[in-house]
Write a structure and sequence with these properties.
With 683 residues, the chain is α+β, with helices and mostly antiparallel strands. Among the domains are: 34 residues, no CATH class; 198 residues, no CATH class. The protein is built from 14 helices and 25 strands. The strands form six sheets. Strands 1, 2, 7, 8, 9, 14, 15, 18, 20, 21, 23, 24 and 25 form a 13-stranded mixed sheet that branches. A four-stranded antiparallel sheet has the order 17-16-19-22, with no helix packed on it. It is globular, with a radius of gyration of 24 Å.
Length: 683
């Protein structure tokens, strides 16, 4: 019985419906960013308005839990070099919470807050020693965040733009995920009740048991859903009780330290209560390294498989292209955490940009030891007091963890985001940054929007779920994107499946537009990375130079009873199938086409990636065009007199981000009919 339940769940994960190629357009958006609701520098209305100046759609998220900062106030100096703590506080005491002005003084005309803070008492001690009551995030979602978004999206000039509310979930057992529930976002009386209840039920950093301040919220799964969780975790050595419903007290479980079980139950709760309206995309998945029980940090491949198995319409992808691209260590990935792969690979985490070994092991399967991290060891960049099981080694290549998921036929997509907080040492209105870019300023997630209809928020969630999307850095290409596989008169695009017969000819066509003129970069000197190979090109006028088609075989999805369920390395059949190089954009008018064809033999998929950096560029790309670890970029000098002083003469921070650009497509699946006996051949 349990085996049948698991097979049914896995089949649903693999066969989950993809998007349609009907009429529509690619529109740009962002779903991971922060405001003064948590640790950002701008309020919700300001960030929404600024983001929509770059983007077509916008989902604002902020950390779950609670906070003392009034989300309606911006403090442009927060987290900046002249930062002062935001004194706009949620409080029951009239007279506290004035707005901080640019000169550091308080605005005497700003209305003080007198909020009815709901839920269990939760306090915070400020830097000046004062203690104030914090507001639970579910309350600020319901009562303050969404109204600010509605105000911004209704401003003149935003008539064709869309915005709604999400949540950066602090995940039980792990780090973070970008979530949203579209329900209520565009109702006649817009409301955030659905995402607020989810936050109350499943935020790791919350111990509120008030049932939503008396709203009667409880957090149980259906009996069928609870059986699904019990079956998935039967016999597994995961921390937490597999019988999720049995852990609820007063309708909630707040004892969730290290509980991957609870996080999986949260995903299934969204599937049961808001199917077709919800998303849960694991955020900056490599940043905190491998998962260790009780650490509440990393994600391993089995955790991605778990979520996608129980809720394929909700957990349909990950953010392996993180924000924080202007930090000295792109994405805030570094060996000190240690992040999986230790650093990013041309701005992409190793789970989609490189090849990952098993946590705590090398690529030969041998256990790592503390001696490997000591001076003179194999990996001295890792602190020698780090637990060896937390370290995931990565190397350049295409047998990525993402490809391992795709090789099971899972509809699991690649996403990018800004993770906007601030510009670090600079103010939000400065052009330099050593932390973040505004949403849409640097990274854009293009999704194919078919029909907003009466519910634009659901239309955006549908488009993200479809897989018909691609990510772009630094305006390397624009929205005029076409990627299709055809056989005879049948065609499919990203996220879809092309059904063919064995031996049929499959024709693949990629058509992109490399826009002429300047991108959003404020810098104009020649790109230091390209100068290494004798190319003089202004950093703000990038050209697409290299495209790869990557293919892989598709086999049966694994179950937790199979050791391969825990293997992050894709099959050896994963490869670069074709490479295209371009040297003279002026001869193409910016229009670039790549064609590839093959005979269909076994179930497979094909995806595309591109960059402005040629294969074999020192410190950036290997001879096959695979990205190298980004700490190597520190060896590239920036010697032009116009190089900004904050990068200290090397290719670093925001200049590094503008110099090394990528685009990444989602895959097209090829389903070969007429060979059922070999369809699920093992790797």
């Amino acid at each position: 019985m349990k085996d049948n339940v698991m097979k049914t769940a896995l089949a649903a994960a693999v066969m989950s419906a993809a998007g349609s190629a009907s009429a529509g357009e690619y529109l740009s958006g962002d779903f991971h960013n922060h405001t003064t609701c948590s640790d950002g520098s701008t309020n919700v209305e300001v960030l929404t308005e600024k983001s929509l100046s770059y983007l077509d759609w916008f989902i604002h998220v902020g950390h779950s839990g609670s906070g003392e900062r009034d989300c309606r106030i911006s403090d442009f100096r927060y987290l900046n070099r002249d930062g002062a703590f935001n004194r706009g506080l949620w409080t029951n005491t009239v007279g506290q919470g004035p707005e901080v002005l640019a000169d550091g003084s308080f605005n005497p005309d700003f209305p003080t807050t007198s909020e009815n803070i709901k839920g269990d008492l939760n306090t915070s001690t400020l830097r000046d020693g004062n203690t104030v009551q914090r507001m639970w995030r579910w309350q600020s979602l319901q009562e303050h965040n969404l109204p600010s978004i509605v105000t911004a999206r209704d401003l003149p000039g935003n008539e064709d733009k869309e915005a709604f509310l999400g949540l950066e979930w602090v995940v039980p057992g792990h780090e973070h995920a970008s979530n949203a529930i579209s329900n209520g976002a565009y109702a006649e009386d817009p409301n955030a009740e659905a995402i607020a209840q989810f936050e109350y039920c499943f935020a790791r950093n919350s111990d509120d048991t008030s049932q939503g301040g008396g709203q009667g919220w409880t957090c149980e799964l259906t009996d069928e859903g609870n059986e699904t969780i019990k079956t998935l975790f039967a016999g597994r050595a995961e921390e937490g009780v597999a019988d999720y419903n049995s852990t609820l007290v007063g309708g909630i479980n707040i004892d969730d330290a290290g509980e991957h079980v609870k996080s999986t139950a949260g995903i299934l709760w969204m599937q049961e209560n808001f199917p077709g309206e919800s998303l849960a995309v694991q955020a900056h998945v490599e940043r905190q390294g491998a998962f260790i029980e009780g650490f509440n940090e990393g994600f391993n491949v089995e955790h991605m498989r778990d979520w996608n198995t129980v809720a394929p319409d909700i957990a349909f992808g990950f953010e392996s292209e993180p924000g924080h691209q202007a930090q000295p260590n792109r994405g805030s990935y570094n060996a000190g955490r240690p992040s999986s792969g230790l650093y990013t690979f041309n701005g992409v985490g190793c789970y989609a940009g490189a090849e990952a070994a098993m946590p705590g092991k090398d690529f030969d399967g041998k256990d790592l030891t503390p001696a490997d991290f000591a001076e003179g060891g194999r990996f001295p960049e890792v602190d020698d007091d780090e637990p060896v099981e937390k370290v995931t080694l990565c190397r350049p290549g295409v047998r990525t963890m993402w490809d391992a998921m795709l090789s099971e036929g899972r509809k699991f997509w690649y996403f990018a985001s800004s993770d906007w907080h601030s510009r670090g040492s600079f103010g939000p209105l400065d052009f330099e940054s050593n932390n973040d870019f505004w949403p849409g300023e640097y990274q854009e997630q293009f999704t194919y929007i078919k029909d907003y209809s009466d519910d634009p928020a659901k239309g955006i969630v549908d488009s993200l779920r479809s897989g018909n999307s691609f990510a772009v850095q630094g305006q390397l290409i624009n929205q005029h994107f076409f990627f299709e596989a055809c056989s005879g008169s049948r065609c499919a695009t990203m996220g879809e499946t092309l059904k063919v017969k064995k031996g049929d000819r499959v024709r693949v066509k990629l058509r992109v537009k490399d826009p002429k003129g300047k991108n959003n970069s404020p810098y104009f000197f020649n790109n230091p990375a390209l100068l290494q190979v004798g190319i003089e090109e202004p950093i703000n006028r990038p050209s697409l130079r290299h495209i790869d088609f990557i293919t892989g075989r598709v086999s049966e999805p694994f179950t937790p009873a199979d050791p391969e369920y825990f293997n992050p390395l894709a099959p050896e059949t994963t490869k670069i199938a074709a490479t295209y190089t371009y040297y003279a954009r002026e001869n193409t008018g910016g229009r670039i086409v790549a064609n590839y064809s093959f005979r269909a033999k076994k179930d497979s998929y094909i995806r595309a990636r591109g960059t402005n950096i040629p294969a074999g560029t020192p410190n950036v790309r290997d001879m096959d065009g695979n990205p190298l670890r980004d700490d190597a970029v520190d060896s590239i000098p920036c010697e032009d007199p116009a190089c900004p002083p904050h990068i200290n003469g090397i290719l670093d921070q925001d200049v590094e981000a503008w110099a090394i650009l990528n685009f990444t497509s989602n895959p097209i699946f090829i389903d070969v009919k007429g060979r059922s006996s070999e369809r699920y051949s093992k790797r």
